[in-house]
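User: quick one - fold this with S-adenosylmethionine bound?
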Amino acid sequence: MIDQIYTPNNIAQELVNLALSSNDQSPLYIADFACGDGALLNAARQILGDRPNYLANDIDSHSLEKIDWCREQYCDDFTNYDRSFNHRFRKIDLILLNPPFSYKSSTGIAFNNRQGYSTKCSPAMSFILNAIDFLSINGQVVGIFPDSVLWSERDRSAREHILHLGYEFTTHRHLPSNTFPGYTVSTSIISLKRSESTHSNHNTDDYSENIVVDRGKLQVHKSLGITSKSSKSPLFIHTTHLKSNQISHAGAYRVSSNKIIGPPYVLLPRVGNPNKEKITIVRRGKYVLSDCLIYVKTNDFELEDIQSTLMQKIDLIYGGSCAKYTTIARVRKILRINLGNDQRGNAP
Ligand SMILES: C[S@@+](CC[C@H](N)C(=O)[O-])C[C@H]1O[C@@H](n2cnc3c(N)ncnc32)[C@H](O)[C@@H]1O
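Assistant: Sure. Structure tokens for the protein plus S-adenosylmethionine:
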């Protein structure tokens, strides 16, 4: 299963334009897990420039040399779950694919995921199944796939599984049979995206089980009584220190307190006018947080997804007719964290 048949530039451009036209937001993270010499990533870069982060993987290291502009490169068998990059990624907004179609074994490719689903399917379908594990909530896969992924008996179980997860397949254009010279497979540009109705069913299954939403532990007036001159004491961080999606140490003081919240987490103000620039990812540093801040503590690779959801829904997060404020319960609701009987984090 190598299939080094590359996408012509005009089709690569068409595919990327289709992907962009069906999303309101410009993708921040784009990947091709079978990138070859980079036809699809090059097309995305021609249109979007260097603003997004690009990520390239191919089983063949030589082809990767042709896209040396792409800084995040991996050389893994994407159908093998033990990929070196599994937990290094943030979630991906746009996955471009023209995967291999050829069979190594007549029984198909085995797929197993961490939720316990397993099947055997075509190589192209196995790329789809593996890819959706990396998608952000609003993310999509757009690629050139054999039409058989939509109807073959071999891919039926995988198709049903994908539909059950809430994704919809859309066929955008059937490609002429001479698109890939020497190959007779009937192909189309197909996309996969979560349907609108499943966005509202988004729940804890999408995030790690250990996600915690809680408030900072120190009130501002109390922090003023325990300031410390020792450089070993933690900095006290308040809403005013969140600037341009980063923690600014300017004006921050140290406190004698062990109420440190260890990273990684996403911070947002509990009170104040909605401001996307204050929704901040914290990956390092030991801070004592003001109780005017709410933090969402989770796995490193879920942080961007949570930050982007909070930014998109910022107008729903803050309520109140005079001073705007939010609560732990509302943040949980926005993130669709269904706690059931398990009360993770404190009450609002
Ligand atoms: C049909 S080409 C498409 C390349 C590129 N995406 C394009 O559109 O031009 C398929 C690519 O998949 C790579 N490939 C084959 N098997 C793979 C695997 N198991 N994991 C990752 N890449 C693989 C091949 O080396 C080849 O570059």
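One thing worth noting: The domain at 205-334 is CATH 3.90.220.20 (Adenine-n6-DNA-methyltransferase TaqI; Chain A, domain 2).
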